[in-house]
Amino acid sequence: MQHITATPLPRWKDLIFSLFGKTYTDDNLGKSWCRPGETAFWFSRSSWSLAYLSECRKLLTRQENINVWLPDYFCNSALVHLRETGINPIFYPLDRNMTPDFSACQQLIELYNPDIFVLVHFFGQPADTIQSAQLCEARNAWLVEDATHVLLPVQGVGEYGDAVMYSPHKHLPIYDGAVLILRPDGPSALPITSFPAEVRSSILISAKPNGIGIIKWLLKRTIQKIGVRRSTFPDTFASDLDLSSKATLPADMTAFSRRLLSRITTDMDTIAMIRRERYADWQTVLKSLGLPEITPINGICPTPYIAALQCPDIESTKSLFSTFLKAGIPVTTWPDLPPEILSCPENHLVALDFRRIRIYLPVHQSITRKQIVHASQNLRRQLAHKDDIPLQPKLLEYAEWSALWEKCSKTNLMQSWQYGAAKEEAEGWRAIRLQIVGSRSKSVALVQVLLRSYPVIGSIARINRGPILLNENTDKLLAQKLDIIEALLVFAKKQKWRVIQIAPEISAIAGADVLLKTMGLNKLSQAPWGSAMLSLYTEEDDLLMQLKGKWRNGMRKGLKHGVSVSHSVGDGKDLELLLDSYKSLQKAREFKGLSEAVIRALARQKGDEWQFNLFIGRDNAQESELLGTLVTIRSGDTVTYCIGTTTNTGKKIQINSVLLWEAILQAKAEGCEWFDVGGLNAETPSGIANFKSGLNATPYTLIGEFRGWMHNFLRLNP
After folding, report:
1. Contact, 457 vs 498, CB < 8 A?
2. For residues 370 and 385, what is the distance between their CA atoms, to the nearest angstrom?
3. For residue 240, is pLDDT > 60?
4. Rounded distance, CA 159 to CA 143, Å?
5. How far apart are CA 380 and CA 378, in angstroms?
6. Are 105 and 130 in contact (CB under 8 A)?
7. Could you give phi then psi for residue 341, rounded to 5 degrees?
8. 287: nearest Cα among 307, 265, 313, 257
9. C-beta separation of 306 from 361 below 8 A
10. CA angle, residues 98, 103, 107, in degrees to nearest 5
11. Tell me, what's the pLDDT at 511?
């Protein structure tokens, strides 16, 4: 598997075209970044854009020295050419949301009136521009929006500034390229036509591009594209190296990059989409491993530049940085800070803190999902080396299982001991029950596995809605369950099971299926399980008011009709009545549902936290005419709605609502904490879906079903 590169790679056809194609002018090339009435100027880097604006401000205002305000979290290397113009840099502090600390700015204004105010849209997230625009208008300063982390203009970017800087070379596979947009309707109403042309000419003439840099860039990208890539990276965590030499690229954008960029601009929407997907993939990987999650500055970025991670302190940040590097992932820190910040730390605490506790992952469009899968495998291996004792599955007997089952929350029917026993009795499966043991022999989770053996093939293992955690750590929920599944796969190989099929109790988190694929589990095509949970902690009156009005009125209609509801544990004549009614429904609706053998087996099960509940509704006015039946099953702290049948007369008087409400109240009276509506997803028939939705329960959807082949069939990843 090819390793992730730090920067995006060009396509072969684009590289070939860039060597011989047409060279575009500033106006033609800038159409993707310009709004109506705006003017585009191209440079090699945005550091030259800043220098150009500085020289123009000095010339137009006839000042020899001007104050340029910059955020204190700013790359010093990007200021090389600006400093050469002889300006006075003023660094204003940021708050924790990476927006200007305007209270501190008001104090600075008394000492240094801004001539140019630079506002940065960090990492692709639009900043609040209005307050900065008001400050600039009041002080006759130019507002410059630094959108170098933004791929293209979006809402909130490039709408208020006098000038806007974009750096396509940061996002796209080009050698150089930065565009400066001048806007006539900013706070200063810039007289764009009055900008002296000789200023830009003198900057461009001062240093002309040469071909050596392009040749080096082409050679490096060609080597990377044929698969020769770095698998290790130097540990330069928060190093304060002098990076100013890297900013000495000649001012003019090369014709090579102009041609290359003209090919890429047609794919901007696709590039933006892929960047958002890779951002989400990293988010899922980090969450699954129990690592710090990506820290959005203020919501979701329209097109992320990089993914920022924030740790609690510098030591944990250094450790995580090193772990990423050892896993072959090109992680970075903020490149450098200006010396003015380092020499006066008491005034720039947030910037210095971010420098120490934030690291960044690439999300560019050349990264594939397979590469992130591979990276997550490497990360798992690195993190596994830090664990004291790996998780171990151990077989359990009924008494041990029951004692641990009582400690589980939001249990489900399929993982209950009695469900496994019913499947053994009715369908010939063999159930084994496992506790997952961690360090110090602490029980972490329970898992029930159903096994069936076939000639030649061998044993097939089925895990439905496991594992069940004993003590859920919500911050590391996904990570815990993935670690358990990995331990189960190792156990499965030792048991010589040929196939393992698992529908894990994992919510449908974007990209989580990628992480299961790293373990050798391939997702199956069937729709994932979805349902809804009703909390029974709520008082009865509040539960009633929580119901949708139409559903509640239907239930009251049935009660007023004079129906009676009986409750039994599913034995004798009541069970036969249920089976006859259910078989009639299966035949009429042409669905498979539960077999008679399974229903009978479930009804025979016993246990302290298990109960088969059968509710039967009858019409008292019509000599106890049958109106409907309903089955719920208690398994642990949760009751699940399993079967519901209704006669034509019962439908008219809403007996289904009466029965379900009685079942909910009975579950609450028994001390249960949750009521599961027993299935509610995109494939649920509309009538049933509308009925169940009337409870206003909290919906959930699981990740789906996966299959792994082992031994001679297909190698399962270690």
Report:
1. yes
2. 23
3. no
4. 11
5. 5
6. no
7. -75, -45
8. 307
9. yes
10. 120
11. 65
- Model pTM score: 0.72
- Answer whether 371's CB lies under 8 Å from 2's CB: yes
DSSP H helices, 535-571, are 540-546, 549-560
DSSP symbol at 115:
S
- Residue with the larger pLDDT of the pair 74 and 481: 74
Of 691, 678, 413, 672, nearest in space to 538 by CA = 672
Q: What is the pLDDT of residue 35?
A: 92
pLDDT tens column, 490-510:
999 999 999 999 999 998 876
Taking residue 456's Cβ as centre, other Cβ atoms within 10 Å add up to 5
Instruction: List domains and CATH numbers for the chain.
Output: 12-225 (3.40.640.10), 268-384 (3.90.1150.10), 392-527+703-709 (3.40.630.30), 531-701 (3.40.630.30)
- CB neighbours of 382 closer than 8 A, spacing ≥ 6? 323, 326, 327
Distance CA 694, CA 633 (A): 20
411-461 pLDDT, tens per residue? 999 999 999 999 999 999 999 999 999 877 788 999 999 999 988 788 999
Of 674, 633, 639, the C-alpha closest to 419 is: 633
Amino acid identity for residue 655 in this structure: I
pLDDT in tens, 578-624: 999 999 999 998 889 999 999 999 999 999 899 999 999 999 877 77
Cβ neighbours, 10 Å, residue 17: 16
